[in-house]
Design goal:
nine-stranded antiparallel β-sheet, 1 helix, mainly beta, 128 residues
């Protein structure tokens, strides 16, 4: 019986990702997400085959995006700042894991910088 509860708990907190996002003209399908609070910012980190996108919320509801290309270490020095990149909404969910509130939201992105282009929409929830 205990293992059934563990499976239910894990299913309840698994990431939910959707949308139609591209990175450099190739579909970017995030396989996981984390709350930006883990890294010290209000936003979300999306990981996929093309690398990692960190989307931060500005005071005006804009998305500011940083790209960690595939193979790069997720350290501040490796980040490519793509700048202001579209609209971003994010909100806290009621669940908390390891003292980090799950977040959900949506980003509508379109930007080009440092030879990289991000374009499309992504939705996310249960990111902790």
């Amino acid at each position: 019986m205990r293992s059934a509860w563990i499976l239910i708990a894990l299913a309840a907190c698994s990431n939910e990702l959707g949308g139609d996002l591209s990175l450099d003209g190739t579909p970017f399908s995030p396989s996981s997400c984390r709350s930006g609070a883990v890294y010290g910012f209000r936003g979300v980190t999306l990981r996929g085959a093309g690398g990692e996108l960190r989307i931060a919320s500005t005071m005006t509801g804009e998305a500011r995006v940083a790209l960690f290309p595939a193979g790069a270490k997720a350290e501040a020095q490796a980040a490519l700042d793509l700048g202001a990149c579209g609209l971003f909404t994010i909100s806290d969910q009621s669940s908390t894991i390891n003292d980090v509130k799950n977040v959900e939201g949506k980003a509508q992105l379109e930007c080009t910088a440092h030879g990289h282009t991000v374009k499309g929409t992504v939705t996310f929830s249960n990111c902790h």
